[in-house]
Write a structure and sequence with these properties.
Elements: H1 15-25, H2 29-53, H3 62-78, H4 83-98, H5 102-116, H6 121-126, H7 128-143
Length: 144
């Protein structure tokens, strides 16, 4: 695998830079970088997820709906369904069982499945709990 410029961001750690960082910032550089990266990641996830969650009317089953949707995506794709067939099945299920509008489901597929995960259903399934935790976090903030 070829390294990119982004891969090298964490590698630029010459001795004088590390010393200077400790003097000015009074903390370990790796901790500061990780804190910045975690904060940025959380903000980006919230921004992308809010785009479809804000379109859903108050529904106490949102978390269950998306948990089921993520499981169904993996199930249908693992059984050989095309993206179009899988999306139609998931849309129908989410509308019939959880009363989630089609436009909100379309936004979920556009923003999460295609834009973020590039239709990689294995990776989406691997990150299932992270996605659920993000949705839950956003819903808790909305409810405050």
């Amino acid at each position: 695998m070829k390294k990119t410029k982004e891969d090298n961001i964490l590698i630029r750690i010459d001795k004088s830079f590390k010393e200077e960082f400790r003097l000015y910032c009074k903390m370990d550089m790796s901790k500061k970088i990780l804190n910045l990266m975690e904060r940025e990641l959380k903000e980006e996830k919230h921004s992308k997820f809010n785009s479809f969650l804000s379109s859903i009317d108050d529904n106490r089953y949102i978390l269950s709906a998306f948990t089921a949707a993520l499981d169904d995506i993996f199930y249908y794709k693992s059984n050989g369904d095309s993206d179009n067939i899988m999306i139609e099945k998931v849309k129908k299920f989410m509308y019939e069982k959880f009363d989630i509008k089609e436009a909100s489901i379309d936004l979920f597929f556009q923003k999460v499945y295609f834009d973020i995960y590039k239709a990689d259903y294995h990776l989406l399934h691997e990150h299932r709990q992270i996605i659920i935790n993000t949705i839950n976090d956003i819903l808790n903030i909305k409810g405050e």
